[in-house]
Specification:
- The chain is mostly helical.
- The chain folds into 2 domains: 59 residues, Winged helix-like DNA-binding domain superfamily/Winged helix DNA-binding domain (Arc Repressor Mutant, subunit A, Orthogonal Bundle); 47 residues.
- It is 59% helix and 6% strand.
- A two-stranded antiparallel sheet has the order 1-2.
- The termini are far apart.
Length: 137
């Protein structure tokens, strides 16, 4: 099971969370256009990692799940912004950012953020989650 797929499901769970909806195999399957058993398999993986917690109406994101989803979204949107400002088309910038977003160190993301002038939104107009400040040597 590829790691980037886990993050695709985590992002979906985060979107559902932001809309105030429970995370269920049905809701994730609909959002991601997959079958319910596939969605359920990934929900269990997210639960095993501590990102989701079973609740009466389905699953909810844990604090760890929210933090990780926001970290990956921040990475994606800052990398996308950097690439777009460098002249890469918006579609290509988004695709490339998706390939890089999980494999970049937090301190490098903060350097990119500072270099870009601490943008608050990506080229799509979506908000960039706030990050941590890291000390430099």
């Amino acid at each position: 099971m590829r790691g980037d797929a886990i993050y695709r499901y985590l992002r979906c769970a985060y979107d559902l969370h932001l809309r105030g909806e429970y995370i269920t195999p049905k809701s994730m399957a609909k959002e991601l256009n997959v079958k319910r058993p596939t969605a359920f398999e990934f929900i269990k993986k997210l639960e095993e990692r501590g990102y989701l917690l079973r609740d009466e109406g389905g699953y909810i994101l844990t604090n760890l799940g929210i933090q990780e989803a926001e970290r990956v979204l921040r990475n994606h949107r800052l990398i996308e912004t950097l690439l777009y400002r460098a002249g890469v088309s918006l579609d290509d910038a988004c695709l490339l950012a998706s390939k890089i977003e999980m494999d970049i160190a937090d301190i490098d993301v903060e350097r990119i953020c500072e270099y870009l002038g601490n943008p608050t939104s990506c080229p799509h107009g979506k908000p960039i989650p706030r990050g941590e400040k890291f000390e430099r040597n």
